[in-house]
Specification:
α1 crosses α2. The protein folds into 2 domains: 47 residues; 47 residues, no CATH class. The two termini are 34 Å apart. The radius of gyration is 27 Å and the shape is flat. Helices cover 59% and strands 0% of the residues. By secondary structure, it is mainly alpha-helical. The chain contains 5 helices and no strands.
Length: 116
């Protein structure tokens, strides 16, 4: 892997820098500042609306506050009364990866077309 020196700039960084420079040259400094400020204001408004929608849409926002989860893990009559990190909860709730790429390749060799 080739290491970058401190003075190098990536392609993406160069394109951003060139776009900003062209914007300043064409539009002038004041118009570019106003456009940047308007963009940042829009981003702030959008971000606030997303957070407000999330806050107002869901009554239970944390899984540990869900009454069904509390009942599931309750020590009195819960199905997983051993706790959240027990062997039983791990076996029932966690997924395991199974590599099926060899079977997929065999099907493709036979001419089977799959739409994924």
């Amino acid at each position: 892997m080739k290491k970058k020196s401190i003075g190098t700039i990536s392609r993406r960084g160069f394109i951003k820098l060139a776009g900003i420079t062209c914007g300043y040259a064409v539009l002038g400094l004041n118009v570019a500042k106003e456009a940047t400020a308007a963009t940042l204001e829009f981003i702030g408004i959008r971000q606030a609306s997303v957070y407000n929608a999330d806050k107002n849409l869901y009554k239970i926002r944390k899984s540990q506050d869900n009454p069904m989860i509390k009942k599931l893990y309750s020590t009195k009559d819960g199905f997983l009364k051993e706790g959240p990190c027990s062997h039983k909860s791990h076996d029932l709730l966690h997924t395991h990866f199974v590599d099926r790429s060899a079977r997929l390749a065999a099907l493709k060799e036979k001419g089977v077309e799959l739409s994924l």
